[in-house]
Design goal:
This protein is mainly β and 123 residues long. The chain contains no helices and eleven strands. Strand 4 and strand 5 form a beta hairpin. It is elongated.
């Protein structure tokens, strides 16, 4: 019923930039928080940045000042602008959304994940 589709990953040199996008689709009633997580090989998945429906943001210390999260509520889309990329930013980046969706006459809450997009930063 709900799908999150990410795009924008790729290979970039250190110091470069990438912009990730994540579009949510399906029987969505409302989306609360949206966020980006990442998981590097051999490491646990970690929060990179999150944004509420009202626009409040939260960032991991390692990306503050370099990454910017934003969202377009009309398009159910969240973005992650990544600047001054470092090799340690290399990971699979996952989009997450806490949302309410409907099925028939009923509404449900759910926590959904995208399929992940690879970001590789070369030194």
């Amino acid at each position: 019923q709900v799908q999150l589709v990410e795009s924008g990953g790729g290979l970039v040199q250190a110091g470069g930039s990438l912009r990730l996008s994540c579009a949510a689709s399906g029987s969505i009633f409302s989306i609360n928080a949206m966020g980006w997580y990442r998981q590097a090989p051999g490491k646990q998945r970690e929060l990179v940045a999150a944004i509420t429906s009202g626009g409040n943001t939260n960032y991991a210390d390692s990306v503050k000042g370099r990454f910017t999260i934003s969202r377009d509520n009309a398009k159910n889309t969240v973005y992650l602008q990544m600047n001054s990329l470092k090799p340690e930013d290399t990971a699979v980046y996952y989009c997450n959304a806490e949302l309410e969706y409907y099925s028939g006459s009923y509404y449900y809450t759910g926590d959904y994940w995208g399929q992940g997009t690879q970001v590789t930063v070369s030194s």
